[in-house]
Structure formats: C-alpha cells, structure tokens
Amino acid sequence: MGIESRFIWMDGKLVPFDDAKVHVLSHTLHYGLGVFEGIRSYRQPDGAGGVFKLDEHVRRLMDSAKMCRMEIPFTKEQIRDACLETLSANEMPEAYIRPIVYFGEGSMGLGARNNTVHLTVAVWNWGRYLGEEGIRNGIRVQTSTFTRHHVNSNLQRAKVIGHYVNSILARYEANDNGYDEAIMLDGAGYVAEGTGENLFVARDGVVKTPPVVNILGGLTRRTVIEVLQHEKIPVHEMHFGRDALYVADEVFLSGTAAEITPVREVDRREVGKPGPITRRVQEVYGEGVRGGVDWMKSYVTRF
Ligand SMILES: Cc1ncc(COP(=O)(O)O)c(C=O)c1O
What we know:
By secondary structure, this protein is of the alpha+beta class. The protein contains 8 helices and 17 strands. The strands form 2 sheets. Strands 8, 9, 10, 11, 12, 13, 14, 15 and 16 form a 9-stranded mixed β-sheet that branches.
C-alpha cells in the first residue's frame, strides 16, 4: 500500500482521502513556513495499536509552531486525540502519522500575518524508511557537500517544512552518487546528522552523538541514549568530525521513520556489519515500541 488511507483529519473533522485538498494559494506552499511531525504507531502484543512517544511529538509540534509564530487553533489534547482518531478511523494499528500545520490562503508575501492556521493529520503504512536490507545489514552513506543549517540561520530545534530543502538536496546528491543516505556536517565542519535522522558512532565500547545545537533533537535519539544508559554503555553528547566515522567500530542512525538503521560504509571506508551495540539498541528499541520493555511502557499510548 502506498501513501494512502481512508480518512484524513482536517481542521477538526475526518474527510475521505480524495477530498483532503488545500488551495494552491496556501501561503505555506509558496514559502515553506509550516511545521510537522513524524510519529509511528506499532501493533502491540494483544493486537491493539500503540503510538510511541505521542505526547512528546505533540509537544515538539507545538514548540515548533511557537518558535515560528504560528498559533495552532487546537490544544495539545485535541491534537493528541486527532492522531488517535485518525488511526482508529483508518483501522491502522501500525502506521506512520503525519500531523502538519500550515498557513492557508488570504494574503501573500513574506510579511503576511493574518492567514489562517490549519492542522491536518494523515496516516499511512510506511515500511522500512531506508529499506529492509538497510535495517538488516546496514546502509552506505556519503558526507554531503551541502552544509547543515547554521545555528543562527534557522531554528534547528523546530521541525519546519522549509528546512527540508537542505535535506532533500543532500539526499538527492547521495542517492545520485550511489549511496543510500547523506551525512551532513555543520558550518564548522562537525558531524551534524542524517537528512532525517540523528547519528551515533561507537568505538571501543564508547558511544558518541552530536549535541542538540544545530540538529533536530530527535525523540528516537533520546530513547537511544536511555537504552544505552540502561545497558550501561557509556554515551557522550559531543562534537566530532567525519574522521570519527572513518575509524568507528559501529555507526548507526536513529529516527522515527528510519528507526535504528546501521551504517556499513562511510565515504568508501568500511565500517562493517552491524556490531553488538547497534544490534542491542535495535533489539531493545524494536521490543520497546511494541510494549515489550518495562521502562518504555509509559511511552506507548494504546488505542
Ligand atoms: C533532520 C532530522 N533529524 C533527526 C530526526 C529524528 O527525529 P525523531 O527521532 O524525533 O524522529 C528527524 C526526523 O524527524 C529529522 O527530520
């Protein structure tokens, strides 16, 4: 099944998939100021659906909107309920959930301030974001020639639609060069993140990940850090260059869409098969999102 479902939630009501349209003069379509989320729900052992970190995602959506001066005309409880209602209406216990906040029609131009703010929630089945083979045996990545946003040129903590042009350019470039994904460096040359994932690197049993300065503060990243802490594997949030990737024992990416995706090659330097730390994180994360890990149970909202 592709990107489709029976119903999409638009501004407070469920509408049939084919009727979920927006006007071509919607402000966000022209300038990219809008915010969104990517959330996943997983089938729980008893067959019910369970959304992973729903409250955290809704909070990040509201934070993103606030940073962009967008006033969402719904409360966090209403947004939360909208996600659950859309999943239930589509009878999808396991799905990717995409809330998106955008400016509608009214005025045009960069200074327009009075356009209405809309909220839509769509759900669809989305398998392995970077491929089944990638999850199993690792992907090949390339350091991008595109620099990640400078900390003061955008609001990196916010999940802003327009930010993703930078990601798409990097992803296209990497794919055109025969790689699965791009790794982006920040303005100072330090490793930042993947185009839609955070990054972890392990050497001699110690894990490093870039700090949340000019990267998206991934919720999966936070979960991975907690998993590592539970496993008593040391983890440091620190800056490092691409050289750390070239001599790493293990490299993996984390994200709601990408889940835990191992990296087997960086810029033609072999990292190798997914190692024990990557495998352990994959295992605990995979069980946790499906309600199988005690300390992660509170992250799952059943519906
Ligand atoms: C640029 C970027 N970095 C990292 C992530 C991972 O964030 P999360 O784990 O919250 O999905 C995402 C995905 O939303 C992303 O788009």
